[in-house]
Amino acid sequence: MQKFALVLDLVNDPALIAEYEKYHREVWPEIIQSIRDSGIRHMDIYRFDSRLFMVMETEDDFSFEKKAEMDNLNPKVQEWEELMWKYQQALPGSPPGAKWLPAKLVFHM
After folding, report:
1. Using CA atoms, how far apart are residues 90 and 100, in angstroms rounded to an integer?
2. Cα–Cα distance between 60 and 62 in angstroms, integer?
3. Is residue 24 part of a domain?
4. Rounded to two decimals, what is the model's pTM?
5. Is residue 79 a contact partner of residue 40, using CB atoms and an 8 Å limit?
6. Is residue 38, in this structure, part of any structural domain at all?
7. 1 and 57 Cβ atoms separated by less than 8 Å
8. What is the count of structural domains for the chain?
9. What is the pLDDT along the chain (109 residues), one digit of tens a residue?
């Protein structure tokens, strides 16, 4: 099992943040299935103000490259991702088009 932490910002607008959270209470079944099919076993997203923090536990053979390939071939995932950009914004210094960025582990007990 691997564990990853990722960060992303939301557009700092209370109405948009409420919509984003509503979508995540009712995630499309195709999105859940694509997450599982990629080897992600557990995923939690936390929010503080407009900052999101995701924790994922994955199978040992999970890779972000493989997941990106799968996502690019899935029209429903592409539709979801396009919709989510309405609410999300890249972190300062992010590469163009980048969304969730990996957080560096600085302490583990």
Report:
1. 8
2. 6
3. yes
4. 0.86
5. no
6. yes
7. yes
8. 1
9. 999 999 999 999 999 999 999 999 999 999 999 999 999 999 999 999 999 999 999 999 999 999 999 999 999 999 999 999 999 998 988 888 788 999 999 999 9
